[in-house]
TrEMBL record:
The keyword Cell membrane applies. Belongs to the UPF0702 family. GO terms for cellular component: plasma membrane. Coiled coil: none annotated. Residues 5-75 form the YetF-like N-terminal transmembrane domain. Its main location: membrane. The chain crosses the membrane at residues 6-25, 32-52, 58-78. It comes from Paraliobacillus ryukyuensis. Gene3D superfamilies: bsu07140 like domains. It is a multi-pass membrane protein. This is Uncharacterized membrane protein YcaP (DUF421 family).
């Protein structure tokens, strides 16, 4: 492959990837589902193949990128619009702990062993399963924990301490307000 062809392929792949990733939407890596993660890797791989694989025509590489991205965008729209599609695409949150007891088969269903569950609990500052009212394994792999009432920190409301109204209102940029239709 000639240097000029390589540069052309790189430029086309770069612009195409930039455009398609903008169309696919922004999502922090921590918010990505497993499918989003795999799809992002696939798009990157197809883009890299387009850029450096001389046996792949630019036309076929572009078609592959566009079609894969269209599938990903379509699934994203279905995920937003349909509860049933979201259940198929992302799965459902699973209750792992209920009233201080690990539900027998639930950790196995999400392929989480007791050591990994304890690690996730410690990340939430929970060091005993008995302190947990509910623990829910979310579709993004995070653990949501509701501690038992006796384990929650004391609040000003618990101590009957009145809180003054806030002195300052949060500042919002006009474009944000306009975008949100306020």
């Amino acid at each position: 492959m000639e240097l000029s062809e390589l540069i052309l392929r790189l430029a086309i792949a770069f612009v195409t990837l930039l455009t398609l990733t903008r169309l696919m939407g922004r999502k922090e890596i921590t918010q990505m589902t497993f499918f989003n993660f795999v799809s992002s890797i696939a798009v990157g791989t197809i883009g890299a193949s387009l850029a450096i694989d001389a046996t792949l025509s630019i036309r076929n590489g572009m078609i592959a990128l566009i079609v894969w991205s269209a599938f990903t965008i379509t699934l994203g729209v279905l995920d937003i619009k349909s509860q049933a599609a979201r259940k198929v695409i992302d799965g459902e949150p699973r209750i792992l702990i209920k009233k201080g007891k690990v539900l027998e088969d639930e950790p196995k269903k999400v392929r989480l062993d007791i050591n990994a569950l304890n690690t996730k609990l410690r990340e939430k500052n929970v060091f005993s399963i008995a302190d947990v009212d509910y623990a829910i394994f979310e579709t993004d792999g995070k653990l949501s924990v509701l501690k038992k009432e006796s384990q929650l920190p004391v609040t000003k409301n618990d101590l009957s301490i009145r809180q003054p109204a806030p002195k300052y209102f949060p500042y919002f940029h006009n474009d944000c307000i306009r975008w949100a239709n306020y």
